[in-house]
């Protein structure tokens, strides 16, 4: 609100950036939920296999199945790691997109403040501060 009060000419650009941020969040939320579900689903077999190997270690040694158990454990760990890497990559991508939108908003605010000849300095500083914290707020809201 302080941004629009100090620079009323920013209303169309602020609306456009808010719409862009809303669309980005709407596209990100279902994908992030599915990715988090995949991570939790693939973590279950890792724990289950570990517990089975610990409980049945005598049988594994007796029947010579240590190699098979180790290869299965590595396969399950690799699948879980892939899901976690995908989840972290998705989070980094979304954070970068929000940073770019926040940077565009900060650029628009600063250009409008510089171009205004009758800008109030206190309100201009407040609007710049709000533009800087816009990215953190958007991340927390999503």
UniProtKB/TrEMBL annotation:
Xref: PROSITE patterns: ABC_TM1F (PS50929)
Superkingdom assignment: Eukaryota
Sorted UniProt keywords: ATP-binding, Membrane, Nucleotide-binding, Signal, Transmembrane, Transmembrane helix, Transport
GO molecular function, one term: ATP binding
Record-annotated ABC transmembrane type-1 domain positions: 1-142
Residues annotated as signal peptide: 1-27
GO CC annotation, single: membrane
Membrane-crossing residue ranges in chain numbering: 94-114, 121-141
The keyword Glycosyltransferase is assigned to this record: no
Name the UniProt record assigns to this protein: YBT1 protein
Organism: Symbiodinium necroappetens
């Amino acid at each position: 609100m302080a941004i629009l009060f100090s620079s009323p000419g920013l209303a169309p650009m602020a609306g456009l950036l808010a719409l862009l941020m809303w669309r980005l969040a709407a596209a990100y939320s279902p994908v992030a939920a599915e990715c988090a579900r995949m991570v939790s689903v693939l973590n279950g077999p890792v724990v289950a296999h570990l517990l089975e190997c610990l409980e049945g270690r005598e049988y594994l040694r007796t029947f010579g199945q240590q190699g098979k158990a180790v290869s299965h454990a590595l396969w399950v760990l690799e699948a879980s790691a892939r899901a976690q890497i995908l989840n972290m990559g998705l989070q980094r991508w979304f954070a970068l997109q929000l940073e770019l939108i926040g940077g565009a908003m900060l650029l628009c605010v600063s250009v409008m403040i510089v171009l205004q000849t009758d800008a109030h300095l206190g309100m201009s500083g407040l609007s710049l501060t709000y533009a800087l914290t816009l990215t953190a707020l958007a991340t927390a809201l999503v």
